[in-house]
Amino acid sequence: MALANKYRPNSFSEVIGQENAVVALRNIIKNQSFHNGYIFSGTRGVGKTTLGRLFAKALNCTNYDAEKGETCNVCSNCVEIQKNSHLDLIEIDAASRTGVDDMRELLESVQYRPSQGKYKVYLIDEVHMLSPQSFNAMLKTLEEPPGHVIFMLATTEANKIPKTIVSRCLQFNLKLVSDELIAKNLKRVFTNEKVATDDKSVDLLVELAKGSVRDSLTLADQAISHCDGNLTEQEVSKLHGVLDISSTTKLFEAIFSNSIDDVISEIKRYKLLDVNYDILFDRALSFLHANMVNNVLSDEESNQDLHLYYQFFTNGLIDAKQTGNKRDCFDIAVLRCLTFSEQSKNKLKKKPKLVKKQEPKLTASKEEPQKIESPEISIKPVEPLGDISSKKNGIELSPDNWFGLFEQLDLSGPSRAFFSNLQLQKVEKKTLFFNGIALFAERINEEDSINLIESLNRLGHEGYSVEVESSETVKNTPSQEWIKNRNKDIQEFRKEIINSELLMNLKENFGEEITEDKIIIIDHEE
Fold this sequence. Notes:
By secondary structure, the protein is of the alpha/beta class. It has four domains: 3-173, Rossmann fold (3-Layer(aba) Sandwich), CATH 3.40.50.300; 179-240, Helicase, Ruva Protein, domain 3 (Orthogonal Bundle); 246-348, Zinc Finger, Delta Prime, domain 3; 352-526, no CATH class. Helices cover 49% and strands 9% of the residues. It contains 23 helices and eight strands. It has helices spanning 3-6, 19-31, 48-60, 76-82, 100-108, 132-143, 163-166, 179-192, 199-209, 213-227, 233-240, 246-256, 260-273, 277-297, 304-323, 326-340, 345-348, 402-408, 413-420, 438-441, 446-458, 478-498, 501-510; strands spanning 37-41, 89-93, 120-125, 149-155, 170-173, 423-428, 431-436, 465-470. The strands form two sheets. The chain has a five-stranded parallel β-sheet, with helices on one face. The longest helix has 21 residues, at 277-297. The chain is elongated and about 115 Å long.
């Protein structure tokens, strides 16, 4: 006999992990306050059908102990219900009887009184599979059933049951059983079955069960057959394609230390062992979640990398479900963590370059634009061009040196945005003549001009005035110069990624070649 059937609870006290539902059912029987119908909802293997049968047994038990809330399990009603042969417990599989004709045939028998027990119980499993017409047919009977009839509805998808049905029933939402309770139950079963085991093999079975008692017993049955009654972590791991639990910690330690070789080695090991990547995704997310919570509880600064890694693995899991290629999606999630880790920025991102200080010049050539950007996300200030600010009025402003000077201005807000999109056309008699498209030129007011003049004064360029006029097009603005330099830096950054150690290892070990056209760089400064 399968362990899931052999160890199915025979009384309320044997049900694990559903104390709230058990207490409520015991009180209902004790107070004789019966409802029209009951809905047991929850995921697979948590006790929906079992609780329905136990409730039916308690209703019909001739020696029911109301104080303890337990059935006698020796009377004829208890024995026959336990054997699933009681005439007044009608179990129906809604998945195979979805039509309205099946429902009408069922409801015709409601009027007849029970033949053996006190109540006639209709236990409808997977009730959400019924057709809309079937639900409508049972509405009136469910609303005003005969006193000897009780409906019990079990479902894994309560959201698919019509609201008109739900409103006529009491609903019990059965929760996932905790890992501790499942582990305790498995150890009890192994002891009764005289099976040798260790704690780590039990932990693996609990992890695979994911809160389902029936799944844990089914997995235990399979493990017993595979290991010939002697369960070990190594054999259970081999059977289900999972790694030892410490492997997740080992992988993330390699990621945190930016050890590319160790990470690649782990990925290759997973491939050779043909592991269960669903379990790897779950473990990675659980590991990151636990570390983020620990950082908060210990008042440590939350590591931004952890939040980024969690997003990578979440997106990887979504992609794996859509594409079906779980191994590649997991590998890519791990490689993304390496690429964006704090310690790898120096290897994969271009280091800031400061413009070398130049000797004072009257003008700066357009053919030698000063580099005002680095591929880092934050903008780095450039060195003063020709030490303009050090000589008050020693160097006159001109369109040629305007780009370098504009970067030194402490202009901010709308004023900076407007003037960065205007072209300095000429400078005559201490007057700066700007032109630009109407979108910017016509929005500049007297306050914006004063802000520019005051900013120039603070750099030592005093006594200037500003004139602005509209034009259809402009060619040389600080904004356009910034975009040109930014694009150049991004292209250099793209080439540096292509030549990085990470991608070299990826090509060497996996035969995967990533070309420039496959790399998308998102510039958050745009």
